[in-house]
Design a protein that fits this description.
Strands 1, 2, 3, 4, 5, 6 and 9 form a seven-stranded mixed sheet that branches. The chain has a two-stranded antiparallel sheet with strand order 7-8. It has eight helices and nine strands. Helix content is 47%, strand content 20%. The longest helix is centred in the N-terminal third of the chain and has 39 residues. By secondary structure, it is an alpha/beta fold. The protein folds into two domains: 40 residues; 203 residues, 2-enoyl-CoA Hydratase, Chain A, domain 1, CATH 3.90.226.
């Protein structure tokens, strides 16, 4: 009898320890999740129809040079490994990209856009607030792009900070960068390269610069963005893409 009571006591103690371990494990997972949100603005939705990943591109896209600490930035060295992990993770069925960016480093932005465009994982982008400058290629890189009615997108020529040599080779270099952006946008939207260049060099819309500012309805009208809509529309479209996409990397 004494032995049986001891066994019951040991079993109860073991159950208690297991429960404590589960609680600690849950707390650790939640802590990691919160740290991920704070560090990169990324989050996985677990209790949903499909497991999708939310990736936010906000502020200024930071490239090879560190921006001042008061700037709100999206670091490409954080985004690129995340995209690789998302593409490999079979449990993640789709990716929604939320954009509210003023632009930033051209090569960093194009690198992220090319990775998104090359993913087999279904992707949907949603422009809220603004998708300016290099945010334009980022917006159109997804399988389907959305923009809210109040959002705007600024299309303008490439700029460069710092010392610039006033020689023909510099202008040629700028033209080549702009061609890269133009060709990517044209290949991933319903906008022709000629019309995109026309918007890029338009005068009269920007106070001290050339270029165009298009709002949500106009962006859809000219074929730059696929659809006008909000978050629920983007999620619904992503679910549709997931259901009509073959399983990747079987």
């Amino acid at each position: 009898m004494y032995k049986e009571n001891n066994e019951e006591k040991d079993y109860g103690q073991e159950t208690k320890e297991n429960n404590e371990e589960k609680d600690c494990s849950q707390e650790s997972k939640e802590k990691v999740r919160q740290e991920l949100i704070e560090a990169t603005g990324e989050i996985d939705s677990s209790n949903s129809k499909y497991l999708i990943h939310c990736l936010s591109i906000i502020g200024q896209v930071e490239g090879h040079y560190i921006l001042p600490p008061q700037n709100k930035t999206t670091k490409y060295e954080h985004i690129i490994p995340s995209l690789v992990a998302i593409e490999q993770d079979r449990s993640i069925k789709g990716l929604v990209i939320i954009l509210n960016t003023v632009g930033g480093d051209v090569e960093a932005g194009l690198a992220i856009a090319e990775l998104i465009a090359g993913m087999k994982t279904p992707t949907v982008s949603l422009v809220v607030g603004g998708g300016h400058s290099i945010g334009v290629p980022l917006a159109v890189s997804a399988d389907c792009s959305f923009i809210v009615p109040t959002a705007t997108m600024t299309i303008h020529p490439v700029r460069m900070n710092g010392l610039v040599l006033g020689i023909p080779q510099t202008l040629s270099y700028f033209d080549k960068i702009q061609d890269r952006i133009t060709n990517f946008v044209a290949a991933n939207s319903h906008l022709s390269p000629e019309y995109f260049k026309e918007l890029m060099h338009k005068t009269g819309e920007l106070t001290m610069d050339v270029g165009s500012v298009v709002d949500g309805a106009r962006a859809v009208e000219i074929g730059l963005i696929d659809k006008l809509g909000g978050l629920s529309d983007a999620i619904e479209e992503l679910y549709r893409l997931i259901e009509n996409t073959e399983e990747r990397y079987i």
